[in-house]
User: Fold these one by one.
Assistant:
Number 1:
Amino acid sequence: MTSAAPIIGVTGGIASGKSTVAAMFAELGIPWVDADLVARDIVAPGEPALDAIVARYGNSLLDAHGELQRRALRDIIFADDNEREWLESVTHPRIRQRLHERLETIRQGAAPYGLLVSPLLFETDQVSLVDRRLVIDVPETLQVARTQARDEVSETQAHAILAAQMPRQERLALADDVIENHGDMTALKAQVAKLDAGYRQLFDGTHQEHSL
Ligand code: ADP
């Protein structure tokens, strides 16, 4: 019997390339869990976290389909730290539990390793769910440009989003591995392929930890 497959935590600032990198690993047969999607799943209709949110703020937060209007909720917690703390106390443990379940499926599966892709890997206790940390690093000017292009926000808004996130150097200091995403897609793909080969060797079927 082989031991469980390790999980690599993939993180980076806004528009650093997390989704793009995850899709490239997926093409190489590596399964992944997206923390953003799980954060949405746990407030879907019928979920206890949504019931708690509606009990506190009322039905006006729901749209005609009973779905949470996330923007309205963001407005409430943006204006009030106590409400933000309350919301996090309701959502974070559930996100963590759901992530744990999804990652456990990967750990018991046939893939040599899996990914947890999360913008808040280091800002939450999600980091304790992973065995290794991969940071996607990108110069801020490029990050602002890619955010603007993808999300249709102004340069000022893009800078404001960056300023609210963990500083680049702090994130890098927590990395075991780094992808430099300042080149084109071909350069990015080459780095993913090299890391994948390294991880496969590192976790060579026995899932033992060696140094890369
Ligand atoms: P994240 O998931 O970290 O927010 P994405 O993977 O969505 O970032 O990438 C942000 C944007 O930048 C997307 O529009 C993506 O297509 C683009 N992008 C990512 N990497 C590159 C690259 N190496 N060259 C050009 N565009 C890129």
Note: The pocket of adenosine-5'-diphosphate is lined by residues 12, 14-20, 146, 150, 181, 183-185, 188 (CB under 6 Å).
Number 2:
Amino acid sequence: MAYNYDPQNIFARILRGEIPCSKVHETPHALAFNDIRPQAPHHVLVIPKGSYVNADHFALEATDAEIVDFTRCIGHICKSLGLQPGAGGQGYRLIANSGEDGVQEVPHYHVHILGGRVLGRMLQKN
Ligand code: 5GP
């Protein structure tokens, strides 16, 4: 595998309890906390507890149990925040920036859950 995980990245430090976070939810394999610079009324980051750099690393190397747990964690948060379009919520967006073109800042896999306002187009038109 081409990925070298940096154990000093900020989310690894949050997982070890070296840096505080505003915890939203925790499962056996995932931790969710509020983004320190929220870009929407709801802006939650969901991270696996395992050492995965990005989405493809996680998809290819995480165990089935980790993947199921992580996905269910996202579902739980969308439900608890009242965002589910199928249950009267106004919807949300999931973002997983990866690598240079994805402009990933923190090299520990994370999914942004954004909601609470109309989020505009997915990408700017060139
Ligand atoms: P990325 O660009 O890697 O997808 O997003 C990283 C996110 O992590 C950014 O939205 C940034 O605001 C957030 N972030 C960076 N450092 C911290 C931190 O120490 N605590 C929290 N809660 N969020 C952080």
Note: Residues 10-115 form a domain with the HIT family, subunit A fold (CATH 3.30.428.10).
